[in-house]
Batch of 4 targets.
Target 1
Amino acid sequence: MKLMKWSLLSLVVLVPSACSEGANESVVGVAGEAPAAAKVVPVAKSPTLVDVAITVNEETGEFSTLIAALLAADLVDAIAAPGQRTVFAPTDAAFAALGLDATSIETVPTDVLTNILLYHVVPGRRTAADVLASERLRMLNRETTRISVRNDVAYINASAILQTDVMASNGIIHVIDAVLLP
């Protein structure tokens, strides 16, 4: 009977957050207390690159095509995964210049879309200062891009960098005005 009581208490202490009402909460019990005395304690979760892109999209509507592309290429988990990376994120207007939107992006073959998206990601956390200190960047698809400054505007290839240093727990986003094509 004592073993059963400890087993139940262990379950209360170890139950993952999926069993609680909030997504970022976990159940914490104190040894010797009955399971009914367990309390829910919020656990802070830092936003990933994907979380930040979704939040920005909810606020501005600028990344709906990028998010749809990540979903279509099955890259959401890879971009949200632990490990630092820098994403050069094209706006919806950048995709529209290619005739693509959140719906039509699914017509792009998955291997082509994956290669294009990986051409927007650099391994490691690179601030704007780090980017500007580079002449070239090797992207995740193994191709390189060129960094330049013209008329006080920073560019990656021919794409202007519109906004820099949007921080996430697993990297940084720099917003760009054109889709980078490998």
Target 2
Amino acid sequence: MTTQSENLFADSSLEATKTKRKKANSAPVFKPYQQHQVMLLPPDLAELIPANHLVRVVHDSIDKLDVDPLLATYKGGGASAYHPKMLLKVLIYAYLSKVYASRQMAKALRQDIHFMWLSGMQRPEFSIINHFRSSRLKEVIERVFGSMVFFLLEHGYIDLRQYFVDGTKLRADANRHTVVWAKNTKRYKEKVQQTINELLGEIERTNAEENKRYGECDLEELGNHTTLTSEAVKEQVNKLNEIIQKAAPSKRTVRAVKEIETTLLPKLQKYE
């Protein structure tokens, strides 16, 4: 004769079994993914950027600059130009982020939230970036960049020993001076400036190589010279579907594997 507690235990076990079967037979649940959903209000990019992020330091530092001497280099009339303060911010942040080629900067302005926030969602083309830094304000940009490197080094935002591209590392004797700016020696500053000059030379070479490769064209990813058609895309989709269907196991296979994992394998392990 069964007791009440045994009946309760049996009922709970039966209920657990039913729940387990129900979960096994239910469809998978995914988080909503609606890429083309219309947004009435665009998100504030500033909310996506940490309070102490490097891009904010660049923005705050350059935003307070007196750029009247830069504005004086522009002629009046004609089409509107991108603000030199915005372009200066983008260039300095790009250099500090190891983005040296103008087309890569233009790419970052299209898809990197830090660059997009810094530019106010403006997207100057690579040719405009090239012109701005190579002719109009080259000396000013290099001096501002050098000053920012010293400032960020002092406050722990960058490490010169790991920061620069291959071939532009600090000399061994400069590395012996760790970033203890209370003992900031003239020799160390000279070594840092030498490294900055080497980096600026590397930037020039990188941009020249990119311009030689692409000429007047932008990056391939923009598809300006593509021969792609909707029919070709459709054929590719069919190929991908075939790959997925061949790779994805059938429901019968999934159930068989689950049976092996949950039933047969534990029994075998217990027997062993």
Target 3
Amino acid sequence: MRSWIPMILLISACSSGHELRWDSSFALPAGENGAAHRGLAGPVTGIIGDRLIVGGGANFPEKMPWEGGEKHYATEAYIYVIEEDGLELIRTQTLDGMASYPGNCSAEGVLFSAGGENGDGPVHSVLRISLENDSLVTEELPSLPVPLTNGGLAYVSGKLYFLGGENRERVSDKIYELDLAGEAKEWTEAAFRLPYPVSNAVVASDGGNKIYVAGGRMRNANAVSTIYDGVYEVDLQERVVHRVATLPRASAAGTGLLDREGNLLLFGGDTGETFHRVENLLLQIARTEDAGLRKELEAIKAEVQGGHPGFSGVCRKYDFKKENWVELTPVSGESPVTTTALAYKDRVIIPSGEVRAGVRTAQILVGKF
């Protein structure tokens, strides 16, 4: 095994590869008053050694967004020991500078987090987060060329790659790279691009020369968002991007990673039915000048969002050698989106995330092959 391959990528599925035992009994800690944690969408998360890090992220502590609720951006970070039979919280600390909805990846014994957003909007900051005596220490790395949130981050051979993402002006199809050992100490735009602008895609690296981008979405002006069904391979050696598979169903904001055999594992996602209904209602509201009709449409929109059925719990494996999809055991418990799937030995860990429109979960989902 090549020593530079990030250990969190080396999850090993059993020979059948289909069975996952999901455990939804672990959670972010309750508050000082004993109230259950509200959960976090878009957390800064990763694994350093046998420590799980979960921090930052956002939620709606008072009201749902369609009720006028204000989004809260958290600054707490939680450190768990990953044990044979579960997780144990060992430390909580405040960590300023964390964004929500960043690209995350763990490598070189640290956690990298790039882009994301805070109360002022998308950011271009990049953090290197390490552990010293079970205390988190942050170091600022060169910033992204532009502020971007909901993008993907991968580490390959001493370089970081930031793919896609969005800001107030546009959705990005660009790939930026940062040579961590290079003299330039700045991100450069790659000469090749993604096939289309995309945010909220699953981004996973094989630790060698390949990065995979699955699904995702692109917001459109005066139209509903495009949700993608493509799986693309970014070949860093050949500097090309090409389509290698098609999702059984278009999906965005789910999680995924590569297993030891190089198969792509995908967990849950938003297939867009409710999302598109809300977008269509927003378009109608924007176009009407009738105050009564606008109020009626806003009430319908609130009802649709409040009645969100939750996100898909379907889990799949794509075998690149056989070129086929295989169904894995579906998620048990709440199926989260807008978070990051992490691998540790024979386990998949999916911390917190969003489970319905505006609703987060404190659950830390653990799946074991």
Target 4
Amino acid sequence: MDNRHFDIIVVGGGPAGLMAAIAAAQQGRSVCLVEKGKRLGKKLIISGGGRCNVTNRLPVEEIIAHLPGNGRFLYGAFAQFNNEDIIRFFQERGVQLKEEDHGRMFPVDDRSTTILHTLEKELQQLNVQLIMNDPVVKISFSPLPFTLELSSSHFIRSKSIIVAVGGKAVPETGSTGDGYAWAQAAGHTITPLFPTEVPIVSRSNIIEGRELQGLSLRNIALTVYSHKGKRIITHRGDMIFTHFGLSGPAALRCSQFVVKELAKVPEKPVQMEIDLYPDHSEPQLMEEITQNLAQEGKRSIRNLLKPYIPERMINPILGFAQIQPDIIGDSLQQKAWQELVHLLKHFPIAVHGTLPLEKAFVTGGGVSIKEIDPKTMGSRLLPGLYFAGEILDIHGYTGGYNITAALVTGYVAGLHAAQWVQGDTCNY
């Protein structure tokens, strides 16, 4: 059996683990990175549609705002290593990045492998020891040093451990929730896990009838309401109707709020609304339609609405308004037109849940941040233990925010684990 000793062991070969190992090794510590799979960076490879949205160039305040799951916890970490440092890290190693809409940063060659190979090369140059395809079976936190038992029956030991194994979303990349049990064994609290950035499920007639399946809507506003009728959140963007509900960027961003509202009153559906004209007020839209009506009023309602609504939505909207599609526009009363315009701004849909956590892009919940030092990512309960990435109770929207949080927390955990080891006077 092996009896190898390292200053620091990093568990998990995703973005957080890779950056943690690099940061620790840069401080001159002996570092071992353990990855249970055959390849590093599986989730990184598929991120951004295979192009790797490696970070976001918005100001830090805005990035924090796009991390609705405890993003403010990261202020201390961003003060040490932020999105501009991520950009500089890759550019200094020959990777040119480009900025796209909403501050999203991608490698110029649009290849996620470029990002991964850069990180792998840095590990090699820093002499980080890799153990691949050998899952951790158990972590013993006491007596010191920390001891990891691997599935190969080998044991490795260290003064410090950084757990960066991700959450439970996208399990085919290796994120199967292994780290939660280890965190609990060390005394940590795991806040309830839930899916975020996940398609929304609806059992309403309009979805189950599949008349809108596959229809994409561009630049709409999607709103989630509480059971008391109060607006919770509105997100602008594209969405698509599926055979089970709603997907696309706007729906994914709303999903966590659907989950949280359903948790309060599980037996009642959550009400959502689609605004097809988020840049128009109802009076503005009414005026535009009235002008068109003066010229085209002898046409049917169905034909009059075609310039304003995707054709497949006309019948559902007219159904809600209880208007026959073949009625002539001139014969419709002003009040009925106002109801139609209101529906263009407030098209209702009842939703009943989301796809499961395993189908989500991001995990909500995780190791409680109350038990983590925000300046170091170190455990407040057990010196020498650190956490980074999605295993923490931190989550954001898609758009480079989650990978930014992973790289930032990974770097800070690696840096401070190395400093802790250097200052530790114990001889294990």
